[in-house]
Design a protein that fits this description.
Chain lengths: 784, 147
């Protein structure tokens, strides 16, 4: 049946993107369009004593200048994002403290981070708008600044949001087994602190919004560079008080999202409001400095962890207390933090587990889930611990991994935890020992160990590092698809999950084409437009293929069945005796007597000529919403081989290998591309990227001269292998793959660097492993 | 941001002290100074036009001289803000008579915020040091030409 699923079908998206005919938000130009620029806070924490907008208002070409008080009664403040609130059973289980702390649209009486929006200028063009922004005078009264979460959580610390009483915004604890008795039985324990720094997602395309209001029909059209157009629509409706159906949100071509575009931002509410207010289209495009300052950041966790193990390497227990340095506002409940807690043990069997997570507020840009969303942090902790245990026992880390893996015969494996969606977290299938074996075969592990010894005698430091992950992918609550055949016989599939690089148009057309027995060219996939379906969720959390893919498959299958039924009426043959292939339906016994999809689509129309069987609704369309029973667990292994220049501390990646299981591979080329791209971002996290604030809460990594992003020069071509354990949790057997590539590199590369420097016994407890940091560690080790 | 430096002058310490307190001279030698006016409470209102890396702009602020021990020690307080961000600095200036004239040692503690901090951070201390050196060189030059 599957002719196209599993094939390297070329991406349908590439022609327009590579010929420069893609349309991104910034490319949208409308008649009489005004442009907006935003005044942002230069203080991390300060009272706003006065805002003087008089000069800016008088500036020629300025249409409007709005500050917080202008929005009162017109635009409601954000509530917490209900999409991220916890299911009640999970809430009962872990009894978290979560204080409500949504972000204001515009700062009113005080600013709480550098880059927070204070005023918006709308002018005839961007130049005038920026000039007018420069004329706004804000009088600040600086307040004490908190940049260290440990300082922020102290009782005596200044409180950023007085109504919350302190700076600990959320707190939760997860317990499995009996941690105390397990620690008593241990031969060894290791206690350490591991840190994953704050990073920025940095899609190629920054955020941007264009809005146009048509008064005649009360229609508000919004274009936004977002991962979640339906969520944007819902919040505009709620906060600007509009009939939801009068709003259409379109995410046109989107140049990357990676998580930071996976929730609603103030600009996505206020710009549409301003377009309505002035009855003029308004455009706002974020510049890169705004992006670095204001688009939400991610990671930034510090784990104080202790592990108990036996002398044979068996891990008995793990306890962890971690802080997530959240920045000034959290609207995402426990999203990343709980992901870290649920995934920390990874593919290891650790029967006694206790983890406490605290989300602490500081005067920094708010936190957001970013590719991996809490898992890279967890994997960094777990896989560094594996290497530390191996060091302690003086064995190869591979042996420690093997000793503790969940075995294939133990699948499905009950983790004794709830997942974030409120279901029992059960790993459904997989063969982890085999996956590791496959990865080690590709790198030639034994041979490498030999080579490593020889090279060390020549003064060359090469090392190998392994890391593994599991990831709950394809989270609900749902995703829908409408599949229809138009009157020209062309097949259309509309989905609620919108792409920003995932190749929906290609892979979803493969799924649909296989059901109808046509080529993917005969299927057009449309997404990123709230007018296509009534409900949609979005593309994030490695969910697109699982949720939208399944919806397309089921809807296609049902429409195919309906078409066979209509064709049966047309041909007077029982549907079971019919075959559908290459756009035609014919009796299996008599292929020359066929009707085409076009003819069937016409016969599906209501009216006297309709051939729709009695009892069946007319029409050539089926809608299906796929509701996943729970997440489906993909997994993988990353192996890095690196060389360390001991003199400079510079790390070169010599080889990078990924083995992964994403269930059924819909399109190998697309999956490989996702992994390669994910690894590139992971390498950024391992070696280069770190958002740094000074002690006054000033962002000092505001440009790409200071915030290093790996380029094609630093990213090796990843060698890959696949495991294909089909998911039993959706009809197409897929598991998500979008984030996996980014999850392991900080751990695999840190492990490889430690392995290379093993004679010096260096411990890497934080990333990025910049040359100066590594040189410090080398010097310190040599001095001892 | 903490910076320090030193300058040497081939004139008497009292002469330098006076020059450093002379509104007309200061206006000429403060880098980028567009306007400097003494207001009633003894502070100077100042307008500066400066560029650090790619961040150019106008700053409006105040300068206050706190004389601790004439002619040996004073503190220069500067604060200003503008479109590129804001600066607040406290500069301790110690003067002392030496054989060939006098020397000045300064220590500065500055808080910089906004775009200048985010974009110009790497070059900020270099630029600040350069501007301070230029300020003292220009003082010396001004005194020479006026003598």
């Amino acid at each position: 049946m599957s002719k196209y699923v599993g094939q390297n079908v070329k991406r349908k998206e590439d022609y327009r993107l590579l010929t420069g005919t893609g349309i991104f938000v910034a490319d949208i130009r409308l008649d009489n369009m005004a442009e907006a620029a935003i005044l942002r806070s230069t203080y991390a924490h300060a009272k706003i004593k006065n805002i003087d907008i008089s000069k800016a208002k008088e500036y020629e070409g300025v249409i409007d200048v709005v500050i917080a008080s202008d929005l009162e009664g017109k635009v409601k403040p954000f509530t917490e994002f209900v999409e991220f609130t916890l299911p009640s059973n999970l809430e009962q289980e872990i009894k978290p403290t979560i204080k409500r702390n949504p972000e204001p649209m515009l700062a009113k009486d005080k600013v709480t981070f550098v880059g927070q929006a204070i005023a918006i200028v709308v002018a005839n063009n961007r130049y005038l708008a920026e000039d007018a922004v420069a004329l706004i005078k804000v009088e600040y009264e600086p307040l004490p600044v908190l940049t260290d979460p440990y300082e922020a959580k102290k009782e005596a610390a200044p409180v950023i949001h007085a109504e919350l009483n302190n700076n600990i915004q959320s707190h939760f604890e997860v317990k499995v087994g009996n941690i105390e008795s397990a620690f008593r039985q241990a031969d060894y324990t290791i206690k350490t602190q591991l840190k994953t720094p704050r990073v920025s997602g940095n899609p190629l395309e920054t955020r941007g919004v264009v809005a146009e209001y048509e008064e005649r029909s009360s229609q508000l059209q919004v274009w936004s560079s977002t991962q979640v157009p339906y969520m944007v629509r819902s919040y505009i409706s709620k906060l600007v008080n509009l009939v939801e159906d009068n709003i259409r949100v379109v995410a046109p071509d989107v140049g990357g999202g990676f998580g930071p575009k996976c929730a609603v931002y103030p600009e996505e509410i206020v710009i549409p409001y301003l377009a309505m207010k002035h009855k003029r289209p308004v455009k706002w495009i974020e510049d890169r400095l705004e992006h670095m300052q204001s688009t939400r950041h991610s990671r930034d966790q510090v784990h104080d962890v202790e592990v108990a193990f036996k002398s044979d390497g068996t891990i008995l227990a793990l306890k962890d207390h971690f802080l997530l340095d959240n920045g000034a506002h959290n609207s995402f409940a426990l999203c990343c933090a709980y992901n870290s807690a649920a995934h920390l043990r990874g593919m290891y069997k650790i029967p006694n587990y206790n983890i406490v997570g605290e989300i602490v507020l500081t005067n920094k840009t708010p936190n957001v889930p970013y590719r991996g969303a809490g898992r890279p942090e967890a994997v960094f902790v777990m896989d560094r611990l594996i290497y530390m245990i191996a060091d302690k026992l003086n064995v190869d880390p591979i042996e420690v991994s093997r000793k503790n893996f969940i075995q294939p015969e133990e699948m499905p494996y009950e983790t004794d935890l709830f997942y974030r969606d409120g279901t029992h977290m059960v790993l459904e299938n997989g063969d982890y020992p085999e996956g590791l074996k496959q990865a080690l075969n590709i790198v030639g592990y034994e041979q490498f160990r030999q080579e490593q010894i020889e090279e060390r005698t020549k003064g060359r430091y090469i090392g190998i590092g392994v890391s593994s992950y599991i990831e709950g992918t394809g989270i609900g609550p749902h995703e829908g698809a409408v599949v229809r055949v138009d009157s020209s016989g062309h097949i259309l599939a509309y989905v609620g999950s919108s792409p920003h690089g995932q190749s929906h148009e290609t892979t979803l057309s493969q799924i649909c084409a296989d059901e109808f027995g046509v080529s993917p060219d005969q299927v057009t996939v449309k997404a990123g437009d709230t007018s296509l379906l009534p409900y949609g969720v979005g593309t994030f959390a490695s969910r697109g293929a699982v949720t939208a893919g399944s919806a397309v498959q089921v809807a296609s299958k049902r429409l195919r069945e309906k078409f066979l039924a209509i064709a049966g009426e047309m041909l007077e043959v029982a549907p079971n005796d019919l075959e559908m292939k290459e756009g035609k339906v014919y009796p299996k016994a008599l292929p020359s007597k066929f009707v085409t999809l076009r003819e069937i689509a016409l016969a599906a129309k209501p009216g006297p000529r309709s051939k729709v069987p009695e009892g069946m609704e007319p029409g050539a369309s089926v809608t299906h919403y796929f509701i996943p029973p729970s997440v489906t667990f993909s997994s993988g292994f990353h192996v890095a081989i690196v060389e360390v220049d001991k003199q400079t501390g510079f790390v070169t990646i010599l080889k990078y290998v990924v083995i992964h299981d994403c269930g059924r591979v819909l399109n190998p080329m697309v999956v490989d591309g996702q992994i390669q791209g994910g690894v590139a971002q992971g390498i950024g996290g391992a070696l280069y990227e770190e958002i740094i604030y000074d002690e006054n809460g000033q962002l000092v990594t505001g440009t790409y001269m200071d915030y290093l992003i790996p380029t094609a020069m630093e990213v090796p071509v990843v060698e890959m292998g696949h495991q294909e354990f089909l998911s039993p949790r959706n009809p197409i057997g897929v598991k998500g793959v979008g984030e996996g590539g980014a999850i392991c590199p900080p751990a695999s590369i840190a492990n490889a660097v430690c392995d290379a420097m093993k004679p010096l016994n260096i411990k890497i407890n934080s990333v990025p492993i910049s040359p100066n940091r590594l040189r410090d560690l080398i010097q310190l080790a040599e001095a001892q | 941001m903490k910076l320090n430096g030193a300058a040497k002058f081939n004139v008497d310490v009292n002469k330098i002290w006076d020059s450093l307190h002379d509104e007309e001279i200061l206006q000429k030698v403060i880098p980028g100074c567009q306007q400097l006016t003494l207001n009633e409470n003894g502070e100077y209102d100042v307008i500066l036009k400066l560029g650090v890396a790619a961040v150019k702009g106008e700053y409006i602020g105040k300068v206050r001289l706190e004389d601790i021990d004439k002619p040996n020690y004073y503190i220069l307080h500067v604060e200003g803000s503008g479109n590129p961000g804001h600066v607040a600095a406290k500069m301790d200036c110690h003067l002392s008579q030496i054989d060939s004239g006098c020397s000045l040692k300064w220590q500065c503690d500055a808080v910089v915020g906004g775009t200048i901090a985010s974009v110009g951070n790497r070059v900020l201390s270099g630029v600040a040091k350069f501007l301070a050196d230029k300020f003292f060189k220009d003082i010396q030059k001004t005194i020479k030409t006026s003598v």
